[in-house]
Amino acid sequence: MLTLIDLINTDRLPAPYEQGAELWNDLHISKMMLEAHLSPQTDAASYKPEKIQAICEYFIQATGLKTGSSIADLGCGPGLYSFQLVQKGYQLTGIDRSETSIRYARNLNRGKNADFIISSYLSPFGDNQFDSALLISQDYGVLSPDSRRILLKNIHQALKPKGFFAFDVSTMSAFEHRKERAVSKWYASDSGFWRPHQHFVLEKTIIYPDISALCDLAVVIDSEIKSYYIYQSFFSHKSIQKELEENGFHVEAILSNLWGEKYCEDSLVIGILCSKA
């Protein structure tokens, strides 16, 4: 039986990047995340279809990749970017932890020149194998600094000499935006994102000002209590460039997004194109 102490303990401050309850392969949550990826109305998971197309087109133009080149789509989700790039004649390898998303990606790209792997990109995934790699929707920022170093090491190892890596991160302007709008809320639901049955949710945003990061905390209560931690780190163009250079990459372009718009200081996103040094 749940007690008052159980509830009070959910309100503790997690250490930065502390692991919460399993998110990616919870059967219900992964289904709801897939629906969010596929929704053309929101950028909450994957970007909207017109942005996906623009990102793929800019990536090809900026890198000059030849038809048949190999691309690693990291955190590929349901394979929406892979689908666009396969249609243009590229070889795709998608990597994602969600079995639900990988299953969809395999069906979407059935018969195409694409392979999809259920794995974490924090495990090595190649050795001088890929011409380029993508990591989209600010996934880089959900990782701790140690995990980011592991990821960059894996990407560096997997890329061929002079191979390209494109990704995006949230900016310090986005950090200020989120801090100003941070709220706590609680609600009951008959069914929703977190559960298919009746449940109660406590949500709040925890700010870590000393490390320019936050945690979106969701405590879900039904017959038990589970706490989910979703982190985001925030960067200046100088801090992300320094992090890349320290891990063996040369920055080719700093942008306001991954579809090629010129960088401006008040942008909420930085799009980065870099190469293996």
UniProtKB/TrEMBL annotation:
One of its GO terms (molecular function) is methyltransferase activity. The keyword Transferase applies. GO terms for biological process: methylation. Residues 71-163 form the Methyltransferase domain. Keywords: Methyltransferase, Transferase. CDD domains: AdoMet_MTases. This is Class I SAM-dependent methyltransferase.
